[in-house]
Amino acid sequence: MSLQNDLTQKVIEAVKQLYEVELPTVEFQPTRKDFEGDITVVVFPMLRHVKGNPVQIGTKIGEYLVEHVDKVSKCNVVQGFLNIVIEDSYYLDFFNSIFDETDFGYVKTQSDDAVMVEYSSPNTNKPLHLGHIRNNLLGYSVAEILKASGKKVYKTQIINDRGIHICKSMLAWQKFGEGETPESSGLKGDHLVGKYYVAFDKAYKEQIAELIEAGTEKEKAEKEAPILLEAQDMLRKWEAGDAEVVSLWKKMNGWVYDGFDTTYKNLGVDFDTLYYESDTYLLGRDVVKDGLERGVFFKKEDGSVWIDLTDEGLDEKIVLRSDGTAVYMTQDIGTAIQRVTDFPDINGMVYTVGNEQDYHFKVLFLILKKLGYSWAEQLYHLSYGMVDLPSGKMKSREGTVVDADDLIKNMEDTAESISQELGKLDGYSEEEKKQLYRTIGLGALKYYILKVDPKKRILFNPEESVDFQGNTGPFIQYTYARIQSILRKADNVGSSAVETSLDLHEKEKELLKQIQLFPETVQLAAENFSPALIANYTYDLVKEFNSFYQQVSILGETDEHKKNFRVRLSQKVGEVIQSAFRLLGIDVPERM
């Protein structure tokens, strides 16, 4: 039982004994730094149930706790706040109980119900870019946090491998590619295909300009540019199963998948299962027809099928066109149902998709609920804001995207430049240096993005992220490396339990209190689908450790019991940093 839960029961017991009143809840908060205490009971909410002066009420409750709770050594009241001082032995008992837990903070038993987390879900007409990086980092981290909280998790993506945009790259390669391949060009497959997506747009704009110059209205020219009509014809052939078009589609998509796999590996993310839009785009139509018979949907005069969500504050939404073809919503309905068919233990899904799709997912979730699927109550849209660079917005068609591969390389180069300036790499081999730059660069990128609440827009500054001071990944990695240096110098950490009779230094106690918060933080991060809670917890832990390191002698301590405890406490902090960063997909270096 946690300290707060235990104290809650005792405070309720005290109020019942003293005032013959049953409190429904007890409100706690951390004790302010300028007051003595480890945890504070807020007395003011009790005044709804207990009449009297808050200082007197707090004083009586405090006296009761000191008398009846062994771990409470003393109390003080400041206005309506009861500050409780906890015995050092309580924190040392806690430390002894967790010291051998290598995965402290993680829940090892998994629930029977699984959660499927979808992220990445790129188009196969261009490489991954900066926006995909935020998507991948968020989705992967949330999946790892859910696993650590005790959930069974499936990681997935749906690859958008069909549609007019795919045909544009295919047609441009046919027209301008001269048989170019990843091998002949030296380009990653996704970069090569993206090059022809840009080439299509360039040719398309040139044709529009020619048509306008010949007297065609702009709107008509945009619809009748020959290269666009050819792309539309290619899409029709693909849908009809034309052998030549399908063969080209498979070849070019294969190039892209190889490229994506390299980027995912470099980024450190993975998937348990993949879905392809070419397999799922026909799903959902039978579900809509069944829902039409049950009155969930209605048909308009032109034969199109809709759902009325005006009672829920939304509007009417089309789910089948008048010609019987599906819209994206229909496909998403079918895909969700298919996933539960494929994995019957799924009882919830998380969709990692940008906030421009907020409305789409409100509608999707409502429709699935109205169709009667119980798991539809456990659907969550992990909505996130855009990522901007100081240079401005990105545009795929114009080839001005911030490429994911380029950004990863840039982060490594930035880490190398700053590390060399600091001059801390004596004795490293070239290979060790290269690996360290990669660890620091990726850690900087991931932490900078994940420390921000997903819903907020980010202005990403690569140089600012690779700073060895402040709330950054490298600062936390450096602290971890410092701890490993302490452990190497200490040589022997010891395995026997720490003496609970030790008198704790204030900084030791604060550090133990911060460690105590880790399991709760993991659960809160899972409940809120927020890696930012893990990131900022880790920063607070590191700040607390550095304050301890600066004010308390570790290896220089002459008392062997104290020295042993401080070394072991440092080791535990290092383990928690590593565990927390693992949930963010960030590695920690043994030396820096």
TrEMBL record:
Subcellular location as annotated: Cytoplasm
Q: Which NCBIfam families match?
A: argS (TIGR00456)
Task: Identify this protein by name.
Answer: Arginine--tRNA ligase
Could you say which EC number(s) this protein's record lists? Answer: 6.1.1.19
Name of one Pfam family that matches:
Arg_tRNA_synt_N
Q: Name one GO molecular function term.
A: arginine-tRNA ligase activity
What family does the entry list?
Answer: Belongs to the class-I aminoacyl-tRNA synthetase family.
Q: Which domain of life is it from?
A: Bacteria
Q: How does it assemble?
A: Monomer.
What are the boundaries of the signal sequence?
none
Catalytic activity field: tRNA(Arg) + L-arginine + ATP = L-arginyl-tRNA(Arg) + AMP + diphosphate
From the UniProt record, report the name of the gene that encodes this protein.
argS
Which parts of the sequence form the motif 'HIGH' region?
122-132
Q: What is its main location?
A: cytoplasm
Q: Which InterPro entries match?
A: aa-tRNA-synth_I_CS, Arg-tRNA-ligase, Arg-tRNA-synth_N, Arg-tRNA-synth_N_sf, ArgRS_core, DALR_anticod-bd, Rossmann-like_a/b/a_fold, tRNAsynth_Ia_anticodon-bd
- UniProt keyword list: Aminoacyl-tRNA synthetase, ATP-binding, Cytoplasm, Ligase, Nucleotide-binding, Protein biosynthesis
Task: Give all residue intervals belonging to the DALR anticodon binding domain.
Answer: 476-592
